Amino acid sequence: MPQYMIRPGADSFGHAVGIILMDAPTPFIPGDVGNASTYKYPVLYKTAPGVTVERLLMKFDPSLTEVVVDTAKYLERMGVRFITSNCGFMVNFQEVVAQAVSVPVALSSLLQLPFIERALGRDQKIGLITGNGSKLDERVLRLTGLKDLDRLVIRGMENVEVFSRPVLEGDPLL
Question: Could you tell me the pTM of the whole model?
Answer without folding.
Answer: 0.87
